User: Which sequence fits this backbone?
């Protein structure tokens, strides 16, 4: 570590305190971003396989231009008329099934989930929420209550119940009826709430369970849960903060893999390519009680600058056909990683879809023992070799690969080669 | 109303739903902002006396330049090292008393208050909050629970108690000991919580009570409450989302009018001149339990672009001496409004400080009967005459005047003349 890095770390500790964590034993001092590349203060470049927020690439010129233009023209709230919010709401709802016809905007994924939870309570008259185990849904009080990855079961309020993360690799069930069997646990969670005298308001899930370990639910799970939760008079909230906007390649939204339509969809991170833009889409009928009863105003949400960023991201996704790119290059990465698995026994699983992939490292393929310590070494080794990614999952033994959507086959070749060498260096 | 406006309103209703409200009977279609001016689609300009978010003026060139440069260079999260967050944390904590030495960043005032409330609970071990009556503190569940302006007392959770807004014009107490008498109600609120078995975590107040009617607490109130709340083992949270960043003219932070130091200060709206930037400052000791126990990561909070905006706002405030401008021109406005009161019996009170002013309209000066319907007419009349502001207070009979900090004496002359004519038009 350089003296400059050490000095910055010390200033962080003093000014920001210990809640601010850094990645890597040797933290990176990033000064520039461009496409799939991040550059450090010494001019060294890193292939970015971690950051899903700069969705269409770091500093994409079309997004930069749209932001620059609008910032110099007008930035104000939504109680005056403005074209951008209308155009963006039209374009965005156009990306959903017809019944999801209404959009509301805020600034972060936490705020989007907060809003969805408030609306679900007002619409259903229920107060309870069901989340999957080891989920992350935000940093505010209500969203953190359903962040089951961080709050032990005995510290959760009685209006929170959980269902197991529907993991077909490491979880309770495998095989063709895994979806149905996992869904039955949601019915049990509803019964748990009811035994406590709590009426459920909603079930919430990220449609690829990220913190749970980049887990794609088995086929039929999401739609079966939707039926169960609606039978109980509650809503299905799809948290698309991570899988949304074409990242999975196959569909524009993660839930579409299961051929059903949620009641509320929340969005965040990639929506403005780094600009703090988030929102939710729902059926117009669902917000009526909320609009009549509770006041909602978000000072920055849906302002002309945020909407310009959102529009520009949609432009780039469409013009550069990035969903298709995620599908193609994502599959190329998956195939390449499985090839690496032939040489590296430590690779237990490769999963996910498009540019939302998990590479699980295990000590023993049969027993699936998590290779947690090794994963940490591999991540640091990758960083030293110019590839940035991060750990995920209950045992932090999964490499979370969420590259910007402009990641090419050539980038993938470099990534596969780097991962190959890093694994070899750590294992031998 | 033009056909274009009607069509936009209809699109809003359909796409955004009824939670999205518009100002004015004849909503304004704003397309451009510059300094204290907003421009509509027909090229008509409006003097902006409402918007505190574009703190140093709409589209201030220095802020636009700083944003433009950083947007094209890098926008990423805080788990890599970056100079901007350190420089901004240094500059920002430098605006506070020495003991407030630690900053944390998020995107909205709601998020700042959420974070402050979570930290207060973890630090004190208490769960209760005391807010003033008719306060607004945010749109998320926890911050909306203390938004006493919207939630009737019997619908509040048992861990929320209130104290009356310390209003020296219309409230319970006037005279030199009003501060002390109002503060005694906070002691009662603590006792209320304790009777319910709830240990208090914090008292929270916007140091000029905006929703309460632009009320400056009587001298001695804030410091007396700080002593009372600390005696109960709880914290004092100063919500500076509206009064902060020099707006009151006299001090950089609203609480400083009372010569004491809060435990946590939250900030939002003006911080990034419209860019979604918010944060809190506290003593480093207070976040330790929180950092050790609860995870906190805010994806967009404190990113290089947000911090560039924050730094640019501080630059402009300092270089253009805008706190002094708010003090001088604010006093000039107050004097002018009192002069108008000689002709207009309907002016019951003029109050506030700097560019955070309230003009209260009453039917009867003696009985202080709120002139609610008239206020609405006056606001619409002002809009037609090219001046934008809004209503506030429990009876919506107060004009909230929070102009951008670059508002000049010449702007004030025009404003006073317009208000004079609008009042005359509405009254005769």
Assistant:
């Amino acid at each position: 570590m350089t003296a400059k890095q050490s000095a910055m770390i010390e200033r962080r500790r003093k000014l920001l305190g210990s809640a601010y964590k850094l990645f890597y034993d040797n933290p990176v001092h990033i000064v520039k971003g461009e496409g799939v590349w991040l550059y450090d203060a010494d001019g060294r470049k890193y292939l970015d396989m971690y950051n899903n927020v700069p969705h269409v690439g770091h500093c994409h010129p079309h997004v930069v231009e749209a932001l620059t233009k609008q910032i110099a023209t007008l930035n104000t709230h939504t109680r005056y008329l403005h074209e951008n919010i209308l155009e963006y709401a039209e374009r965005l709802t156009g990306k959903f099934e017809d019944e999801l016809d209404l959009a509301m905007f805020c600034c972060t994924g936490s705020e989007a989930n907060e809003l969805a939870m408030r609306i679900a309570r007002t619409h259903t008259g229920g107060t309870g929420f069901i989340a999957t185990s080891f989920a992350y849904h935000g940093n505010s009080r209500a969203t953190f209550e359903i962040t089951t990855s961080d709050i032990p079961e005995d510290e959760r309020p009685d209006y929170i119940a959980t269902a197991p993360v529907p993991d077909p690799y490491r979880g309770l069930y495998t095989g063709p009826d895994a979806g149905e069997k996992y869904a039955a646990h949601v019915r049990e969670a509803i019964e748990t709430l009811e035994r406590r005298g709590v009426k459920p308001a909603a079930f919430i899930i990220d449609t690829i369970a990220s913190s749970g370990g980049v887990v794609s639910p088995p086929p039929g799970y999401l739609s079966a849960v939707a039926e169960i939760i609606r039978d109980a008079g509650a809503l299905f909230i799809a948290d698309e903060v991570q899988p949304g906007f074409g990242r999975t390649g196959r569909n524009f939204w993660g839930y579409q893999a299961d051929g059903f339509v949620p009641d509320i969809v929340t969005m965040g991170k990639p929506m403005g390519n780094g600009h703090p833009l988030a929102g939710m889409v729902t059926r117009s009928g669902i917000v009526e009680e909320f609009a009549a009863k509770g006041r909602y105003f978000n000072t920055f949400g849906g302002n002309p600058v945020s909407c310009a960023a959102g529009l520009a991201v949609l432009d780039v996704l469409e013009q550069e056909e990035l969903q298709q790119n995620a599908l193609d290059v994502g599959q190329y990465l998956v195939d390449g990683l499985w090839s690496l698995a032939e040489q590296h026994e430590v690779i237990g699983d490769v999963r996910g879809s498009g540019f939302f992939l998990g590479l699980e490292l295990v000590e023993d393929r049969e027993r699936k023992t998590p290779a947690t310590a090794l994963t940490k070494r591999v991540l640091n080794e990758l960083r030293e070799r110019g590839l940035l990614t991060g750990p995920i999952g209950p045992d932090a033994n999964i490499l979370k690969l969420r590259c910007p959507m402009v990641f090419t086959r050539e980038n993938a070749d470099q990534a596969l080669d780097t991962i190959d060498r890093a694994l070899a260096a750590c294992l031998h």
